[in-house]
Each structure stands twice: as structure tokens, then as C-alpha cells.
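**User:** Hello, beginner here. Are you able to go through the protein record under this note? It all follows right here:
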Amino acid sequence: MGSKPPRIQPPPQSLPPTASATASLRQLFDSLSREQRRNQELLASLAFALRSFTNLNRFLELVPLVAARLMEAEGALLLPFHANGQLWRDHFQGTPPGRSRDVLRQLAGLNDASLLASAGEAGLVAHLDQVVAQHWGEGAVVGTSVVARSRQRGRLYVFGPAGGSGWSDGHRRHGQLVADLTGVALENDALLQERRRHERLDRQLSTGAEIQAQLLPDHCPVIEGVELAARCRPAYLVGGDYYDFISTRPQLQGRSREQGRWALVMGDVMGKGVPASLLMSLLRGMLRAEVLTGLPPDRILHDLNQLAQEDLAHSHRFVTLFYSDFDPASRLLRYANAAHNPPLVWRRQGQQVERLDAPGLLIGLEKEADYGCEQTVLEPGDVLLCYTDGVTEAAGISGERFEEQRLLTCLQEACRAGLGAQAILDQLFARLDRFVGSDRSLEDDASLVVLKVKEQAALASLPS
């Protein structure tokens, strides 16, 4: 039998032009889709790090890596700035480490003071661009600003091969997006540090408020024949207002102490907050030591002014102080005033209000200042009101001040109603709160001290 001739396969038919174009287009779409997914994953990883990072430096380490991959570059540099515009050298980042090390070292050696003084923010950026471009070449580097809240917070540089073909608009948009996320991270870290600083300050203020609360009398003493009420409302947690009740003979006890002479003090350190509170504490110690000398009020203020002169001069602050001593046996009130708001006295007999004042300069203003001494007798039913300017200077909703005349009128109303010392104090603060507004706080520390002579009080009978 004869063998069959071999079967010849027909040559493969070439694809038509339309099918070839479709395949090429599909390959292009697949490539673009893979690139898009890769870019989305890179940006998603950076966004995840942004919302979950607890260490700023760990986040900033990712920035040049992500920027270089997104822009298909050889490497990248990140140069953050402090909030004041100076280079934040501790957070300089670069990739790859070997090639970026030299330029980072060169940038870290730049002098902040000379850069900012000679060129300002724009000049600093231009100088950084110049240094980086000299290292890699003009065409190989693209620089993008890191901005947070309209402030320059750094520069992000991405570099490719020397003489490269440049960067597309898509690459530049990706670089700007990475820079914007970096700006958000820097601002978040700044806000976090500020919050922590405020938390530390709040703890310190709370401690200061506790100490100040211990320095101010926690209750009014018992003085024969009078009722007392007092309250200090600081504008902040701590303040510079000061009031005190000091026995001139602390060695006495019981009824003898109640019948002895007492010093009544109201003062105000200029300013608010912690500095004023510290000075108030210092003056309190000095004054309490002076009271033990038994000197009259004018001499007490004279000596206190000389003692406090140096401390007040260093702090550039002054103190107003009303000092008085009250003798329950004679109901004699002696007083001197270092430019403090003159206390008000409501006279029960005449149903009128008087102002108690005496000549004298601020404590700390002049070392050899002299002070006048005045005196008055408080009759049964009379009411003495001492206050600080935080009361009369309190602003209402319309911007009008509370002022002394309104305080005087409120005092008259409370006294004519026959209220006791504590009720008078409560009514005055309630009237002040209504004037200021329930949803608004005081601008300055406000303090009130009310002394009312009991109706049944009578002078001790003299021996025959």
C-alpha cells in the first residue's frame, strides 16, 4: 500500500487591523487601570497613616517614599518648617538615603536667622530651591510647597534622572496632593501639642486656684457686734483680688479674740491670672507680718510699700489696697487707702451712703510715699461695703459699665430692706450677674466684702 502524502497546515491568518487596535487599546487600559489602582493604594496608605499616626516623624518618613512612587521618580526630599518659619531639621526626610544624605546635610547647615532676616519666607523657599537644583540639576527636580492654614510649612522635592523628559500634569497633581496631606499632618501635630500645653496649663491653674482658695479666708471670722460676708469671683481660675480679716492680737482665743481689734483688708493687683495671683500671695505674707506690729493703718501701708517695692518693680505691676482696723468695743474704724476704690458706708440713721477715702499712692509706685489716716464710728445698722474695680468696671450686654453709682443704688436698696450681711452680698452679686448677662463672664476679678453692725450692738458701758 502506498503511504498518504503529508497534510500541509495552512499558514495562520493575520488578525485584521481592527482587532489588533482593540487588543492594544485593551492593554493600554489594563496598564492605566493597574497604575491607577497602585496610586490609589499609595494615597490610601498615606491617608490611613495620617488619621492614625501618633508619632509625627513616623508619618513624615512615608512622605518622600509615597511621593517618589506616585511620580515614578528616583527619589524625594521633605523639608518641614517650624510655625515661625525656621527649618525643622529634626524632621528632614529623604529617599533614597544614600543620595539624599549629602544635600540634607547641606540644607541642615543653613543659618535660619540670616535666611529669614535677609530674604523672608519667599526668599527662604527660593534659596532652598536653588540648593536642591544645584545638587540634581534644574530639569531633574520639581518642588511643591507644603501649606497649612495659608502658611508655608515646608517644601517637598521630587527628582528624576538628569536631563529627564519632565513631569506630566498628573504627576504634579499627585505631588501636590502628597504635600497637602503633609500640611494637614503638620497642622494636626501643632494642634495636638497646643492642646497638651493647654492641658498642662489647666492643671497648673487648677493647682494655683486651690492654693489661692486656701490663702483667701474660707469663712468670715466671728467679730463681736457685726456680721460679715465676703466673696471673690476671679475672671480666670486664679486672680489678683485679695481680701482678708486679720486679728491684730492672734494670741487671744475665744471671746477675747472676738472682742479684739481686727484688720479688714481689700486689695487688687493690677492684671489677672497667675502673675497677679503670685504677687497677691507675696503681699499677703508681708501684710500679715506688718499687722502684728500694731501700727496705725497709714504706717502699715507705708512700711508695706517699702517692703514690696523691689518685687513690684521687677514685675512692672502695682497694687491698690484699702487697709482698716475695727475695734468692736468702740466701733471705731480707722483706715488708710493706697488708691483703691473707696469703700461705701450706708448710714442707717440718715439712710444715705458715704464714701470712705484717704490720700495715698499705689503700692509699688514710689518708695517714699506717704499715706493719710482717717477714722469713723459705725453705728448700729450701718453697713460697710468694700469692693474691687472688677465690680464697677464690669461691662453689660450693651457695653455700658456697672459703675459706682449703680452699685451704690443697689446697696441702698438692700440695706433699706433690712437684709443681713450675707443676703446683701448675694443680692449685689445677683444684680451684677443680671447686668453682665447670664451667658457672659466677667472681664476682671470681682470681690465684695460686707460688714454690717448688728442692730442691737451698743457701746460697752464705761466704768464709773
About this structure: The CA atoms of residues 336 and 373 lie 5 Å apart. Residues 169-215 form the longest helix (47 residues). The chain has eleven helices and 14 strands. The first strand starts at residue 75 and ends at 80.
